[in-house]
Specification:
It holds the Pfam family GGDEF. With 342 residues, the chain is of the alpha+beta class. It has helices at residues 2-14, 18-32, 79-87, 125-149, 162-182, 187-191, 206-213, 215-232, 256-272, 296-312, 321-326, and strands at 35-44, 51-62, 65-69, 72-74, 91-94, 100-108, 111-120, 157-158, 195-203, 238-241, 246-254, 283-290, 318-320. Helix 1 (2-14) runs antiparallel to helix 2 (18-32) and helix 7 crosses helix 8 (215-232). The chain binds guanosine-5'-triphosphate.
């Protein structure tokens, strides 16, 4: 037993990314405590009321038969889950058939980040101790992994995580498309023109902010801008600090008109935001569509070309890659495999 326990701790801490960590945690809990259902819930930070997503569920049907349920946003969290998240305390409920449901909070840097829900036939005290210990190990390890994913100054995702996150998003889109084709759904009516988008945001004349007011003031500008971005964009949009004064946003699928309007509103918000010392600050944006079969580098290059165009044509504006291509204002990126050599 002791050896099995040690091996399971090794399994959990061997993981190098947050998604695999969730799989390891749930399978380990299931291995030691016979459950009917285990889920990881996460609070998605954003504006307005607290949004919760069920990040992963392991549902056990029969001995040796189980299924994994994927990420889903929970509009109305269960009352007990909400209490657990708000109070950061464990909550247990038992129904008349003796089935127990437990919610254990996940606390990171003294803030509740989510909860683990366990549904089972009732736990003895040794199992309860074990369950608590697994959740604490998960909590500690999650703290380390989260810090590795984030930029130190702004707290946004860092560039190193970009390829992985975009790949996950593209795989999800591809799965959805394949599922729709398999189920015979009409893709056009299914998505109604909605695709994912990537925006590259770059502060205009940032060098002069540093040169005139110093690096500390420059850092403060970066911090305020990233806070505004976190408040303004949806909690499901991925925000990265890509380099010095460059940010990348990957949007959940939406149509062209909506993304256009949202980016214009964002530019307006930046114009109206007050930054220390600086009278006026603006940003330029390059926006490109993300298709399921794109390479991350291609999408970045497209957005970068559109950004370059926006910078060259007066700054404080959004360059739309597809628009610029169709108007022949920039040249299309050609994949090396598409080039006909003969
Ligand atoms: N304060 C601060 N400055 C940074 C950081 N990283 C990069 N920079 C500065 O960002 C500035 C980027 O300047 P440029 O690439 O010349 O661009 P720009 O002045 O914004 O001009 P345009 O992009 O053409 O509008 C440089 O002065 C860098 O030193 C950082 O973490 N903090």
């Amino acid at each position: 037993m002791q050896e099995e326990l040690l091996n399971s701790v090794i399994k959990i801490t061997k993981t190098r990314d947050i998604d695999s960590l969730e799989y390891s945690l749930l399978s380990t809990i299931q291995e030691f405590i016979n459950c009917q259902r285990i889920s990881v819930f996460k609070i998605i930070q954003g504006q307005g009321p607290c949004t919760v997503e069920r990040s992963l569920t392991l549902r056990v049907h029969d001995v040796g038969e189980y299924e994994w349920l994927d990420r889903v946003i929970i509009d109305e969290p269960h009352a007990e889950l909400s209490s657990c998240l708000q109070s950061a305390c464990s909550i247990t409920m038992q129904d008349s058939a003796g089935t127990e449901r437990r919610w254990l909070p996940i606390v990171i840097h003294e803030k509740t980040a989510g909860a683990i829900e366990v549904q089972c036939e009732g736990l003895d005290s040794a199992q309860q101790v074990m369950l608590n210990a697994f959740v604490r190990i998960y909590e500690n390890y999650l703290t380390i992994l989260r810090e590795n994913e984030r930029d130190k100054l702004t707290g946004l995702l860092n560039r190193q995580t970009f390829d992985k996150k975009l790949k996950q998003l593209l795989e999800k889109q591809m799965l959805e498309q394949n599922r729709a084709i398999r189920d015979g759904s009409d893709l056009r009516s299914l998505h109604r023109g909605a695709t994912s988008w990537l925006a590259m945001v770059d502060i205009d004349h940032f060098k002069s902010v540093n040169d005139t007011y110093g690096h500390v003031c420059g850092d403060e500008v970066l911090l305020i801008l990233s806070q505004r971005m976190q408040e303004f964009f949806r909690s499901t949009d991925l925000l990265f600090r890509f380099g010095g004064e460059e940010f990348v946003i990957v949007f959940e699928p939406t149509d062209y008109e909506s993304i256009k309007q949202r980016m214009e509103q964002f530019l307006n918000l930046v114009r109206k935001t007050s930054f220390p010392f600086i009278k006026k600050l603006t940003v330029s944006v390059g926006l490109a569509r993300i298709s399921p079969y794109d390479f991350p580098i291609t999408v970045l290059e497209n957005a970068d070309k559109a950004l370059y165009y926006a910078k060259e044509h007066g700054r404080d504006q959004v360059g739309f890659y597809e628009d610029l291509i169709s108007r022949k204002q920039i040249k299309q990126h050609i994949e090396s495999s598409d080039i006909d050599l003969f």
